[in-house]
């Protein structure tokens, strides 16, 4: 090889090295530079997607301007990209987008389960969620789903969410049962949940729950029927816990395993999913000799020790309701 040829070869190699190095530097710069996303966006990375498909998905969503820059950058860093639903901020760089996916910072969705809903109502909420996957096949006993706001990720299965609700309820009951007040007329944790479900459906006021529980305990001690309207409604509504009409005298005599106007003691099962406050009220009832309660027309209840006192409270409530109906008609 002549000296001139050698110089040409060396010069070409240097130039190629400079070009490669320049391209690498430009790729590195673009990998860490702000991206084209003008507004925050949510992108779903499907399960089983490889780096190239993820890069293509991000490019199509406008998160990155070049799928190749993202793919090469991710491969050079030997990272593991996780499937899921991700929220990307505006102008996110390819490198920052990669970090969000690598860290598994998925979007968290919420589902609020209110106290006092029945299992059928909760299953309806879970079924209607467009975030969850699969059908509901899990069988849950009435009363054993913990009411609270639940956090979920996209494509978590509906059975998994119901399983978490049930596990949390059983753990909550276990903890509260151990710390229960002594001498309660309860044979089991199951009975505690039954009674708590009745308290839950009778009042939404925290201050009243221990009093309502005390009334039920006092009636049980005297072998009086509990006569709780929500137990009648549960039996008549096929477990939905709601009626689109007022109860009638005939309803109070309906023969169901839950109607505490016709059966002695507790219903066969809970009539709803009680919250923690109702469970605590049943396991730590108020000290009271009240045997009756009725709505007071102001969102709470009037409690009474004797039937005469109770009848007076009922008459007062009926008069208040009649006056309100009269006011509503403008008479």
Can you put this structure into words, describing what you see?
This protein is mainly alpha-helical and 331 residues long. The protein has helices at residues 3-32, 51-60, 67-76, 94-102, 119-128, 158-178, 189-202, 209-221, 229-236, 249-252, 276-283, 307-329, and strands at residues 41-45, 84-88, 109-112, 149-152, 292-295, 301-304. The protein has three domains: 34-107, 2-Layer Sandwich (Dna Ligase, domain 1), CATH 3.30.1490; 109-170, no CATH class; 184-329, no CATH class. The protein has a two-stranded antiparallel sheet. Strand 5 and strand 6 (301-304) form a beta hairpin. Helix 7 (189-202) packs across helix 8 (209-221). The chain is elongated. The protein starts with a helix and ends with a helix. Residues 4-21 have low confidence and may be disordered.
Residues in helices, as a percent range = 40-55%
Biggest sheet statistics: 2 strands, antiparallel
Radius of gyration: 32 Å
Reading the helices and strands in chain order gives HEHHEHEHEHHHHHHEEH
